[in-house]
Design brief:
heterodimer, A: five-stranded antiparallel β-sheet, 3 helices, elongated
Chain lengths: 489, 491
């Protein structure tokens, strides 16, 4: 019996030690080839850097080689007699690669590749081929059409930085040069501006609206009054609940201007508002519908901003369904959460403008709309009836000056209720229409958190980074984080 | 052991088969669990006497008790069809009902077998849509004719078979057959040679037709625009639905046949929400007595703000002025559903409880249809008397969201000032020989609800009926009370 216990203990130790040992070897496949090598134990290490052993990874590789008894050289000096080995290490967008060759003839005897870690490299995504010629033809994007982008290593990313409260949305305010950048986050209680400088997140004086029943929906930034100073529009849902009437969420917009180290607030329309650079758009909520009436321009001429009278061309969609790209075209969410390119004037799909790309099932902030005729689900009682419909707002779509649209790809799932764990990685993607085809680019390999919202940071008129509002839970009720991701377009 | 092996095999087969079974429908499960500690006090308006029993959904009860209404529902639906069923146990909580065990004898005091709270199918709704204008519907679920306004005529979960659909974009219909009672008198060996009633002698069948015409208009026509403007864009609505209603009550059990017809109107004009209905009954008993009565409801709610939305309403049911003549003029609907109407309804207020022992309004009903017991021709349990005194009710109230005080807190409060329409059939016990006073009394309701989250809430109802001289002349001087707490889980 004692022997059995010892045997089990030994096996357990072995099982623990072997993976740990294996995990410490940077190149396991190369390691097997090194073990099998019967020739001269000399090796030339070829890397792009002049001092390959200055990093932890380089030192681990050196240890691995020395452990096998190799005399390691660097530079371009071939092992004496040409009877040793050459280990060539490369690092590019596809990840790190190792080629092990015989020095005598250059034949590759082992190869190993490591995928890039999260947050490092872009992933190209082809777009599916068309299903029917009768439909608008979605374009197939060749790899060459997707511009490669060099991404910084994850170690260069600041954060993620923990955010207090339960922020639901964020916006970039301004570039503060050497001082960092200014941003603001939206919570149920108000708006909290911050200055982000390297890894320091410094809060300013917050704005607190003082309405206990308001619930954060989203935050917009732009300059619709064209005064050169950025403005914020925060939109909350004012939930009115009745014992026998269900919930009725009414949008409440508040306009903010930066005033020194704080924000000055003024009332905005009682409607949904979107800003797009120097333009603003408004749409009312209906009594029994999420939207009522056309999308109209935001009137910034008065003391307070209001909905204008004139309807704008909005592709026949509602405020969040459609995002204009210039005067003629617009991106539009379809019912199954895909994007398509349509005519901004009449909403007609454009040839080749169907993007068969799975953006995932994003569940944004919810808005309750009372049913005109409540449904008796279980009976007459107030608890037995369905009296409202909860609508989820789609993910943010931001269009840059060059026409590139940015949005969220929801790949992280919440898992099974109560017992499941979230899995998968949310991503930020860029969608670009090049005249006859779409190009979709995932801006980094994804992040193991739910991306609730994002904002683009511009420097000298160009998008230089994205600010991600992350949360451990899809509904924003978990721990929140801010992640800055440099973008190099 | 053999049983276990069989069970294992069965489970293995089931597991192997399940992934291969086609997913033919979307199925959802839902339910509610409500526990209602309640105190009924003085429903006879007399402190000196014990109340008679009171009927509620849990059974016969009175005084202090806890009712449990536990429901589990499921709905399977395809593109054109759906099947919904809701299982329920609705009991007054005690050992016998909870354990379903009676330790002496095999039946309860009501003569029921040892069953306690059965988990039976409380509601079933089976639908198939052939065309947008033709949907087959059957089962037993909530159906109503005027529950959107005053609830004078019909609302209940009786069995039904019928059709509904949209005839045009603005016109819809619902045609129903309701076998409310279908109690055959089948002969037995002991009946040999005896007189037998006809097979449908205790039946009660109702046929209904309701049309709904959408009369939506342009909101720019709202007077509030001219007076105040509407920069907020809220309550920017002008809608009206007109609903002609017809029902035929073939009431063999009451030996009466009644045609009901009327009109319901609901809608919204900016900040104002009107509610209106007018209903008439025209029929005859088999013995030749003529049934002729009418009723109406009118209400107006003003959507002032989040916390304060006042309303006024008038509810009228005709009373009978002489029980001894052949004219039966007291209004009796198929099933008065005032308790669940949008404006004056309150799920647990005193007028919506069973006041059959005094004022005469029974469970769900606001009108005093059981204040008299002759010439019955409808109402809940087919017990409404056509010789009832009728009702004139003026209501004032308000409701709203008290989130400014505490998010999740809501209220509704109202007062009803109630007169009898006719008092000739009522008996004055306080001053025998004198006419009963018209003023029946005043009710006051206050309901507070706090929602902890979307799955759990607690609400409390304080409701009282302060007798007027009309009640005092017949029963007593003491007010009646309901105190009801509802602990509600919704999932």
């Amino acid at each position: 019996m004692r022997i059995s216990v010892r045997l089990v203990a030994a096996l357990v130790c072995l099982l623990c030690v072997v993976p740990a040992f294996a995990a410490s070897i940077p190149w396991p496949r190369i390691d097997r080839a090194l073990s099998a090598w019967q020739g001269q134990k000399e090796l030339l290490l070829v890397t792009a850097t002049k001092s390959p052993f200055s990093t932890a990874a380089g030192q681990a590789t050196l240890e691995q080689l020395l452990m096998h008894g190799f005399a390691v050289r660097t530079g371009d000096q071939v092992p004496s007699g040409g009877r040793g080995l050459v280990l060539e290490l490369k690092d590019n967008d596809g990840g790190a690669m190792a080629f092990l060759r015989r020095a005598v003839d250059g034949a590759i005897i082992a190869f190993e590749r490591h995928a890039p870690p999260a947050g490092e490299a872009p992933v190209e995504q082809p777009v599916a081929a068309p299903l029917s010629a009768a439909r608008p033809v979605p374009a197939v994007v060749p790899s060459s059409a997707v511009p490669a982008a060099s991404r910084p290593a994850s170690s260069n990313l600041p954060g993620p930085l923990s955010l207090p409260g339960r922020p639901r949305s964020l916006a970039w305010l301004a570039d503060a040069g050497e001082q960092g950048l200014d941003l603001a986050v939206l919570t149920d209680e108000g708006v909290q501006p911050y200055r982000l400088h390297q890894n320091l997140l410094q809060p300013w004086g917050p704005y607190v609206h003082g309405h206990p029943a308001w619930r954060a929906l989203y935050l917009e930034a732009g300059d619709p009054d064209r005064d050169g100073d950025p403005e914020l529009v925060a939109v909350w849902a004012d939930d009115t609940r009745g014992i026998y009437a269900g919930t009725d969420s009414r949008p409440r917009a508040v306009v903010f201007e930066q005033a020194g180290r704080g924000l000055s607030a003024s009332p905005g329309p009682r409607a949904f508002v979107r800003l797009q650079d120097k333009l603003g758009f408004v749409q009312y909520r209906g009594n029994h519908s999420l939207y009522q009436g056309p999308v109209v321009a935001l009137d910034t001429s008065g003391k307070s901003w209001n909905a204008g009278q004139k309807a704008v061309a909005w592709a026949g969609g509602n405020l969040f369904e459609t995002t204009p790209i210039g005067q003629q075209q617009a991106l539009q969410w379809t019912a199954d959460q895909q994007l398509r390119l349509v005519s901004r004037q009449d909403g007609a799909p454009l040839a080749g403008g169907s993007l068969l790309y799975d953006f995932g099932e994003f569940v944004g902030p919810r808005v309750a709309v009372p049913l005109e005729t409540p449904e008796y689900r279980a009976g007459f009682g107030k608890e037995d009836m369905v009296r409202e419909t909860w609508h989820s707002l789609p993910p943010r779509v931001v269009v840059d000056a060059d026409g590139t649209a940015y949005t969220i790809r929801r790949e992280r799932s919440t898992g099974l209720p109560l017992i499941g764990k979230p899995t998968g990685r949310d991503k930020l993607v860029a969608v670009r229409w090049s005249g006859d085809r779409f190009a979709v680019r995932e801006l980094f390999a994804g992040i193991e958190a739910f991306i609730l919202d994002f904002a683009l940071v511009k420097q000298q008129g160009k998008v230089s980074a994205a600010l991600l509002l992350l949360n451990q839970k899809a509904d924003g009720s978990g721990e929140a984080y801010l992640q800055r991701v440099p973008l190099d377009n | 052991m053999l049983g276990n092996i069989r069970l294992l095999w069965l489970t293995a087969l089931l597991v192997a088969w399940l992934p291969a079974a086609p997913a033919t429908a979307a199925i959802e499960f839902f339910g509610t669990a409500k526990i209602k500690p309640t105190f009924y006090d003085n429903f006879d308006f007399n402190d000196g006497k014990n109340d008679a029993f009171i009927i509620n959904e849990g059974g016969l009860t009175g005084d202090q008790h806890i009712r449990a209404e536990l429901r589990l529902g499921w709905k399977a639906a395809g593109e054109r069809w759906s099947v919904k069923m809701i299982a329920e146990a609705d009991v007054i909580m005690e050992k016998d009902s909870a354990d379903r065990s009676y330790y002496s004898g095999a039946t309860s005091y009501e003569g029921k077998p040892n069953s306690g709270g059965e988990f039976g199918i409380e509601r079933a709704e089976l639908l198939y849509r052939f065309f947008p204008w033709l949907e087959l519907e059957t089962g037993w679920d909530v159906r109503a004719l005027d529950i959107g306004s005053g609830g004078l005529l019909f609302g209940d979960d009786h069995p039904f078979l019928g059709f509904r659909g949209d005839l045009t974009d603005a016109l819809s219909y619902e045609l129903l057959y309701l076998p409310i009672q279908n109690r055959n008198s089948l002969p037995t060996a002991d009946d040999d040679g005896k007189y037998l009633r006809s097979p449908d002698a205790d039946d009660w069948r109702v046929y209904t037709l309701k049309l709904v015409q959408d009369m939506g208009g342009k909101s720019a026509a709202l007077p509030q625009h001219a007076l105040f403007g509407n920069s907020s864009g809220e309550n920017n609505i002008l809608s009206m639905a007109l609903s002609p209603v017809y029902a035929f009550s073939d009431n063999d059990s009451a030996q009466a046949r009644i045609h009901y017809f009327g009109l319901e109107a609901t809608g919204q004009a900016g900040w104002f929400k009107p509610y209106f209905e007018v209903m008439a009954a025209d029929g005859e008993f088999d013995n030749g007595r003529d049934i002729s009565a009418w009723a109406m409801f009118a209400g107006l709610e003003v959507l002032m703000n989040k916390a304060f939305n006042p309303y006024v309403a008038f509810r009228y049911t005709q009373g009978d002025d002489d029980a001894s003549d052949d004219d039966v003029e007291g209004w009796v609907g198929i099933g008065d559903i005032g308790r669940y109407t949008p404006l004056l309804g309150m799920d647990g207020n005193i007028l919506g409880e069973d006041l059959g022992q005094s004022y005469g309004a029974t469970l769900y009903s606001y009108s005093p249809e059981r204040a008299f017991r002759t010439n019955r021709y409808g109402g809940i349990g087919n017990g409404g008397s056509g010789d009832n005194p009728g009702q004139k009710l003026i209501a004032v109230g308000t409701r709203g969201d008290l989130a400014a005080i505490l998010p999740g807190l809501m209220y509704k409060t109202q007062a009803f000032f109630i007169w009898y329409d006719e008092t000739a059939n009522l008996i004055n016990t306080r001053k025998p020989g004198e006419k009963v006073d018209d003023y029946a009394g005043t009710t006051f309701d206050l309901q507070l609800l706090y929602a902890f989250n979307k799955n759990f809430s607690i609400d409390y109802i304080f409701s009282t009926f302060v007798p007027g001289d009309g009640i005092k002349d017949q029963f007593g001087d003491d007010p009646a009370f309901v105190n009801c707490l509802t602990l509600a889980w919704t999932y």
